[in-house]
Structure to design on (100 residues):
């Protein structure tokens, strides 16, 4: 007698049927209740202002000029020490990380 190896085994069929029945009987929220919950949550954050809450703080940053022994890499635009120059083409210098 020929055996069909592509056919599902009986124990696999039974487990699939029981898991399908369990999913159908599970108490999942319906789409309307989910939409209502999302709408309620949207009204709470940011007080209706797009992008959230405004913060009235001023950012103060001290800018330190580039030193004489530093250069700006033309690939990553990081300020590096002169010892990290890998190659230089005219006035353009490249660091060891970008040239590697």
């Amino acid at each position: 007698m020929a055996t069909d190896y592509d056919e599902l085994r009986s124990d696999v069929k039974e487990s699939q049927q029981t898991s399908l029945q369990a999913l159908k009987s599970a108490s999942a929220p319906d789409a309307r209740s989910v939409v209502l919950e999302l709408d309620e949550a949207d009204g709470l954050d940011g007080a209706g202002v797009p992008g959230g809450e405004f913060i009235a703080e001023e950012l103060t940053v001290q800018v330190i000029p580039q030193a004489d022994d530093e250069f700006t890499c033309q690939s990553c635009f990081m300020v590096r020490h002169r010892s990290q120059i890998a190659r230089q083409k005219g006035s353009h210098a490249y660091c060891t990380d970008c040239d590697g």
